[in-house]
């Protein structure tokens, strides 16, 4: 193991909803975005002049404040 990031979790299956729907409790079911896609997005943002701010050394509240407007929930039915 190298410790490299290979993906970013973007969603998790709701065990409570699956229990109600199927009678089974799901474990470790998540959905992730491959880091390769994220790397391309970041490079495109940088080349477009969009500023990518570092989060290193910031408190939890500072990070939340900095990223709050860039995070949103997508619900598919």
Topology, element by element:
Elements: E1 7-12, H1 15-22, E2 30-34, H2 35-47, H3 60-67
Antiparallel strand pairs: 1-2
Task: Provide a quick synopsis of the model.
With 77 residues, the protein is α+β, with helices and mostly antiparallel strands. The chain is built from three helices and two strands, in the order E-H-E-H-H. It has helices spanning 15-22, 35-47, 60-67, and strands at 7-12, 30-34.
Care to describe what's here?
Helices cover 38% and strands 14% of the residues. The protein has 3 helices and 2 strands; from the N terminus they run βαβαα. It has a two-stranded antiparallel sheet with strand order 1-2. The protein is an alpha+beta fold and 77 residues long. It has one domain. It has helices at 15-22, 35-47, 60-67; strands at 7-12, 30-34. It is elongated, with a radius of gyration of 17 Å.
How does the major sheet shape up?
2 strands, antiparallel
Q: How far do the termini sit from each other?
A: 38 Å
Q: How many distinct beta strands? A: 2
Poorly predicted regions are none
Q: How does the overall form come out from the CA principal axes?
A: elongated
Number of domains: 1
- Secondary structure: helix percent: 25-40%
Q: Number of helix segments?
A: 3
What is the C-alpha radius of gyration, as a whole number of Å? 17 Å
Q: Overall pLDDT, averaged?
A: 79
What is the beta-strand fraction? 5-15%
Reading the helices and strands in chain order gives EHEHH
What strand order characterises the main sheet? Answer: 1-2
Broad structural category: alpha+beta
């Amino acid at each position: 193991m190298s410790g490299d990031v290979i993906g970013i979790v973007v969603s998790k299956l709701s065990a409570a909803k699956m229990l109600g729907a199927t009678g089974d409790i799901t474990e470790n079911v998540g959905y992730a975005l491959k880091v390769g896609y994220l790397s391309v997005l970041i490079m495109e943002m940088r080349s477009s002049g969009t500023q990518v701010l570092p989060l290193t050394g910031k408190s939890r509240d500072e990070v939340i404040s900095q990223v709050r407007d860039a995070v949103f929930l997508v619900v598919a039915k």
